[in-house]
Amino acid sequence: MPELPEMENYRRLLSEYIINQPITQVEVNREKSLNVPADQFTQELLGLRAIFVERRGKHLIFHMNNGRRLLLHLMLGGLLYYGSDEDRPDRSTQVEITFGQHTLFFIGLRLGYLHLLTAKEVEEALKPLGPELFDRRMSKERFIELLKGRRGALKSLLVNQHVIAGIGNCYADEIAFEARLLPSAKIQELSVEAVGRLYDAAVKVLSEALEHGGYMEAPFMEGDAVTGGYDEMCNVYDREGESCVRCSGVVNKVELTGRKAFFCPSCQHEQ
C-alpha cells in the first residue's frame, strides 16, 4: 500500500506534469471507485485544470480551478501511471483522466477511491487524521506527549492514522528496526528515551524514503528513475529469512494484530 513517501513522490511528480493542463477526456471503468455517477463526474471535470496538488497522510488532494477537489486514496494495490495511449500500462484501469496530451491512469482502485468533493467535504473527510512527522508544529517533545497514555503494540500505534498520519506496514517495520525496538513492544512500557529514539528513527527513515522515491517499484511514467528507489534500502520489510544488516541475526516475520511484521529478534528489543 502506498504510504507517505510514495504519495509525496506522486505529489511532486504530478505537480511537475499536470498543473494547469486542461482536462480533455475522462473515462470511468469502475463507477464504484467514485462517489458520484460516472456521467456527473465526467461532465464536472471536463475543461477544468488542477492548480495545486496537496498531500495529507496517504491521501492526495487535487485542487481544481473552480474550487472543487478530487480526493484520492489508493489503498491496497493502488498506483498511478502517467503517459500517452502508446505507453499505457498493461493493467486494467478504474479511472483515466487526460490532462492536455497525456493521461493519468488510476490503477488498482478496487479498495481505493477518487471522490469529487467540495473543500469543506474534504476537510471533514480528513479531520480524523492525526498529525504528521513533518508537520512544522511537530517536535520530539510533542511526539513524546502524543504517545503519553497510549497502549498497545508499537506497530499498531505507528500505523494508526488517527494517531500519526502517513505510516503503514513497510515504514512501521523500518522505523522500529532503526529504533532497535520490537514491533510488539508495548507503548505504555517504553521509556522516554526509547520514545525519543523512536521519533529520531521515524524522521530518518521517512526522510530517506522521500529522498529515494519510496519503496513501490512500479514507475510513475516512462523513464522514471526515481520511484521505488527505497525498496533496496529496506532493512527488514519483506526480508524474511535474510541476514540482518546490523548484526548476526536473521529477519523474522510474525503476524501482529492482523498485520505482518518483519524484525530482527537479535538486535531489536522491548526498550
Automatic annotation (TrEMBL):
**Cofactor requirement:** Zn(2+)
Under InterPro entries, the record lists: FPG_cat (IPR012319), FPG_N (IPR035937), H2TH_FPG (IPR015886), Ribosomal_uS13-like_H2TH (IPR010979), Znf_DNA_glyclase/AP_lyase (IPR000214), Znf_FPG/IleRS (IPR010663)
Record EC number: 3.2.2.23, 4.2.99.18
**Which parts of the chain are coiled coil?**
none
Kindly state which keywords UniProt assigns to this record, in alphabetical order: DNA damage, DNA repair, DNA-binding, Glycosidase, Hydrolase, Lyase, Metal-binding, Multifunctional enzyme, Zinc, Zinc-finger
Does the keyword field hold Manganese?
no
Kindly list the residue ranges recorded as spanning the membrane: none
User: What Pfam families would the database entry show?
Assistant: Fapy_DNA_glyco, H2TH, zf-FPG_IleRS
| Formamidopyrimidine-DNA glycosylase catalytic domain mapped to chain residues | 2-106
Q: Could you tell me which residue ranges the FPG-type domain spans? A: 235-269
Q: Which reaction does it catalyse?
A: Hydrolysis of DNA containing ring-opened 7-methylguanine residues, releasing 2,6-diamino-4-hydroxy-5-(N-methyl)formamidopyrimidine
Q: Which family does it belong to?
A: Belongs to the FPG family.
The protein's name: Formamidopyrimidine-DNA glycosylase
Species of origin: Paenibacillus chibensis
